[in-house]
Amino acid sequence: QQPVQSPQAVILREGEDAVINCSSSKALYSVHWYRQKHGEAPVFLMILLKGGEQKGHEKISASFNEKKQQSSLYLTASQLSYSGTYFCGARTGANNLFFGTGTRLTVIP
Amino acid sequence: DAGVIQSPRHEVTEMGQEVTLRCKPISGHNSLFWYRQTMMRGLELLIYFNNNVPIDDSGMPEDRFSAKMPNASFSTLKIQPSEPRDSAVYFCASSGQMNTEAFFGQGTRLTVV
Fold it and tell me: What is the DSSP string of A19-58?
């Protein structure tokens, strides 16, 4: 039941934009996005609850297409601090939370 | 609140030994998750509890793995006997009501030699 993320890795220069995609084979109650720095625990970014919902967190935003069982994370004008591994979390039932294999984002000067 | 607390932070053990990982969730949270993280598989959901009851343990890789949650403030993940392929970072996370964020502990880095 792990969601599938793409791309697996991306390298950006500061100021460039990126999109990370997440898709599920099962219907989604909600989608969670997390970022993990090397050697640290994943940190919550945002949660999307409704089909078609979009949310923003500074220059990081996300959308959730309930019908397509997909979500996308948008990073605009990337900063060095955005580097890390981004995980999409999928709730396919009331109490579960499955994560994908992650997308490693590297922002270079 | 101190957040989700896991112990130990690092564990090195010999193949065949029993390993017990511990987790204290955030007070008031009723869902608890155990994950295993590796480069190849990312964050794998091993088992999750709701109100101290195991809901789904289909992610537990083998019978060598077991998990308990005797009360709302404590959970354990046990591996017996341990094998080198069990080497990974194990995370515990907890969350409150449905569709709220999950908070992760700092993880336990397990090395089986």
Answer: EEEEE-SS--SEEEEEEE-TTS--EEEEEE-STT-EEEET
Nearest CA of chain B to the CA of A6: how many Å?
Answer: 13
Q: Are strands A84-91 and A98-99 parallel, antiparallel or unpaired?
A: antiparallel
Q: Do the chains contact at A32 and B102, CB–CB below 8 Å?
A: yes
**Look-up: residue for tokens 């569709």?**
B99
Summarised one tens digit per residue, pLDDT across range B92-105 is 999 997 778 899 99
A41 to chain B: which residues are within 8 Å by CB? Answer: 91, 104-107
C-beta of residue A101 within 8 angstroms of C-beta of residue A8: yes
Nearest by CB to residue B101, choosing from A44, A95, A102, is: A44
SS3 for B32? strand
The pLDDT tens digits of the residues spanning A63-84 come to 998 888 999 999 999 999 999 9
Structure tokens at A66: 């309930």
Q: How far is CA B74 from CA B23, B32, B51, B57, in A?
A: 6, 10, 12, 17
For B13, the token pair is: 């053990």
Specify the amino acid at residue A78.
S
| Nearest-by-Cβ selection for B99 from A30, A41, A42 | A30
Q: Which of A29, A95, A102 is facing B42, going by the closest CB pair?
A: A102
d(CA B69, CA B106): 19
